[in-house]
Amino acid sequence: MTIAYWIVAALLAAFYAYAGGKKAVQSKERLEPMMGWVDRTPMALVRVIGMFELLGAAGLVLPPATGIAPWLALAASAGLVLIQVGGITVHLARGEGRLIGLNVVLLAAAACEVWLSTIWW
Questions:
Q1: Residues near 104 by beta carbon (within 8 Å), at least 6 away in sequence
Q2: What is the pTM of this model?
Q3: Cα–Cα distance measured from residue 106 to residue 66, given in angstroms and rounded to the nearest whole number
Q4: What coarse category fits the chief subcellular location reported for this protein (predicted)?
Q5: What are the residues whose beta carbons fall under 8 Å from the beta carbon of 95, sequence distance 6 or more?
Q6: What is the DSSP letter of 69?
Q7: Angle of the 43-66 helix axis to the 72-93 helix axis, nearest 10
Q8: Pair 21, 54: CB distance under 8 Å
Q9: Which residues are within 8 A (CB) of 85 and not within 5 positions of it... i.e. 6 or more apart?
Q10: Domain edges within the chain
Q11: What is the Cα–Cα distance from 18 to 107, expressed in whole angstroms?
């Protein structure tokens, strides 16, 4: 169970560190080609989402690795579930149902991580 946790956590953390970092620092013009939804979203909200993704990535790895407040891994993975529910909602509202594949995979992985993170309690 611990090995499964770390595999999923590493993959999710790498993805969210990359995606969150881009949202946190890049301009709207640089983000639009790969994230079309930023055209109608205030950049302050895009930055907040990016920061939440970065915090989620850190929360998956740091608390279990250090043993300090390991329950934060559960909170981080639950937060990433909510981010993907929001992402799916945005895509469906924009009529982009065909683009939710990655969101569904990330949602499933984060939901699995919620369950796997219970080993740290």
A1: 84, 88
A2: 0.92
A3: 25
A4: membrane
A5: none
A6: S
A7: 150
A8: yes
A9: 107
A10: 2-120
A11: 17
